[in-house]
Design a protein that fits this description.
It is a single chain. Helix content is 79%, strand content 0%. It has 21 helices and no strands.
Length: 455
């Protein structure tokens, strides 16, 4: 029995992991952050990396350390019903409801739309998304070869194309990063704002879904021992982390220096388009189209694969993996044609609710060697976090919905009584309180059982 992968295999699995994570959303958000953060870009980038790189890698490692076969298995110590609810909610969020449709719309908006006249936008999006999801489905129906499609082919193509643009930025920067003033929340709290920006990547949520794909591929490479699987997964995670950190930092630098030559914009896609045009003209637009399409396609394939595998295992008596892949692809195709702006606006409140639950689950799984899968600790921590996360969801609602009297009063209550709520972390103290209560409950009840057995 093999106990470790070769360096080449670690690099290949690391490349697969990087490829699954790094989609077009990952390109857009750090670029826009750079423009808005200005001279505070370094602090904002550190916050972004904590959530956009550190947390996803912890999610993969936590899954391996806790020896969980799936997200359902990882969340099961809370309760079976919660495990089913959270698994479905997370997979649908990073799947057909938001993240998968976003891959197609971002690819279109950034890579294709600049070449299309305004009156043909809708029909162009329809045709593009049709071709995009046809390719996604083709590769998703062959999950056994995902490590080849993404690790060997799509990922290198994406990295080569993106490197051309980033090298141009560093060799001939458009401006001096320190000379541009920060805007909005980046003025007073750039670190925390950068952390919240990292939520938009959805990577921490995706890590809990992709873990099953990574562990499965490590097993296919001959590693069977659970401890060895955890170690090799960690090593591959380091490869992916380094690559993601370098690219995120470079994109943030691109964003802030772009202010020296191009105007500010509403999203990172437009900024990338203007920067590409600045350096390479029409060739730059074509280059960007290739970068974004490759990035989006590989992420869409990974998400369809993960979602279909999870639902076919979670509901074994329902329909097959193939049927789930087809349904999720068709649903994603439909949602994509509602447009990128609507998808992003609707996803933010859901992310603000799910992220605290995902973070606490990852931390509890990392503590498995110490606390095990203690039901009391998991249940109390998750219960308090769940309640507090509802306030974060309400705070992130569109202004039209926040005008409701009940919603307004609940948000005001959270402002008054939840520390760090204004920073987007009102759930931290409740989670800690829940953990302490769970720990005490576990110790007291365990002691009571021992005394009862002794008597």
């Amino acid at each position: 029995m093999r106990e470790k992968l070769t360096i080449k295999q670690n690099l290949l699995v690391g490349s697969l992991l990087f490829g699954l994570f790094f989609g077009a959303g990952n390109l857009i958000f750090p670029v826009q952050m750079g423009q808005l953060a200005g001279s505070n870009t370094l602090s904002a980038t550190i916050g972004f990396l904590l959530i956009g790189v550190g947390l996803p890698m912890l999610g993969i490692i936590a899954s391996a350390i806790s020896k969980s076969e799936s997200l359902y298995d990882m969340a099961k110590p809370v309760s079976s019903w919660y495990s089913t609810f959270f698994t479905c909610a997370l997979y649908l969020t990073i799947g057909p409801l938001f993240a998968i449709p976003r891959t197609a719309t971002v690819a279109f908006e950034v890579g294709i739309r600049p070449f299309i006249s305004e009156e043909y936008i809708k029909i162009a999006l329809l045709l593009f998304s049709l071709i995009f999801f046809a390719l996604t489905l083709y590769y998703s129906l062959r999950p056994g070869r995902i490590i080849d499609w993404i690790g060997k082919y799509l990922n290198p193509i994406f990295l080569v194309l993106l490197s051309i643009l980033l090298i141009a930025v560093f060799v001939n920067p458009m401006g001096e990063a320190s000379s541009f003033a920060a805007q909005g929340n980046y003025i007073s709290k750039p670190l925390f704002t950068g952390i919240l920006d990292g939520y938009n990547t959805m990577d921490a949520l995706a890590s809990l879904a992709f873990a099953i794909v990574i562990v499965s591929n490590v097993k296919k490479l001959g590693i069977k021992n659970s401890n060895s699987i955890a170690l090799e997964t960690c090593k591959s995670g380091i490869v992916a982390s380094v690559g993601m950190a370098i690219i995120y930092s470079s994109l943030a630098y691109l964003g802030v220096t772009s202010l020296g030559s191009v105007s500010s914009a509403d999203n990172g896609g437009i900024i990338l388009s203007m920067v590409s045009n600045h350096y390479f003209g029409i060739i730059g637009q074509v280059l960007l189209a290739g970068i974004v399409t490759a990035a989006c396609l590989k992420t869409a394939i990974g998400l369809i694969t993960s979602c279909s595998e999870m639902f076919s295992k979670l509901f074994p008596n329902s329909i097959s993996y193939r049927s789930y892949a087809i349904i999720f692809t068709l649903f994603s195709f439909t949602i994509a044609n509602f447009g990128l702006t609507n998808i992003i606006q609707l996803s933010i409140p859901v992310l603000m609710f799910l992220y605290p639950l995902a973070i606490t689950l990852i931390l509890l799984a990392l503590l498995n060697p110490v606390i095990g899968k203690d039901k009391y600790i998991y249940s109390w921590t998750t219960g308090f976090t769940f309640i507090a996360a509802i306030f974060d969801l309400l705070q992130a609602l569109p202004e039209s919905l926040k005008g409701n009297t009940i919603v307004t009063e609940l948000i005001e209550f959270a402002h008054l009584y939840l520390p760090a709520f204004d920073y987007g972390f009102g759930w931290l103290i409740p989670a800690l309180i829940g953990f302490i209560i769970g720990l005490l409950s576990s110790r007291i009840l365990s002691k009571g059982k021992k005394e009862y057995a002794y008597n």
